[in-house]
Target: SsrA-binding protein
Amino acid sequence: MGNKKKKSSKAGPGVIATNRRARHDYNILETYEAGVQLVGTEIKSLREGKASLVEAFATVDDGQVWLRQLHIPEYSMGSWTNHSPRRTRKLLLHRREIDSIEGKVRDGRRTLVPLRLYLKNGLVKVELGLAEGKQDYDKRQAIRRRTEEREITRELGRKVKGMTA
Model:
């Protein structure tokens, strides 16, 4: 019987990186799953669980979708073949998805934000969100709503414990 290692990631199995700030700063209207075109040392570095989506964003240029500012650190065992950590990477989507996305982001009010980077069947995928920016008052309302819900569940928990005791 072999010992199996458990992943300590809260985001789910196979998740390499998540952009937790994106849902705070943007209203996510739609999500898309896209493949990421990588070189050898990038996939090895990602399998070690190293990546950062903090400053990453996607653009549509000449009928192609590109992921920019995704930070994948150099592979620790790599040599002269190592990749550039912040290079622009091509995203793999169906033509009809690219055309749909291009039409939706053309007006400048919406943007493409990577939400999470994960492994699926041995391939690296990125979940893209078609997003509209939130205003400061929207962010404050969301924080207030979460706080109120937390207090309600806490009160209900106390009442249930009081009834059983």
Notes: Confidence is low (pLDDT under 50) at residues 1-10. Strands lie at 15-18, 26-36, 57-61, 64-68, 89-92, 110-120, 123-133.
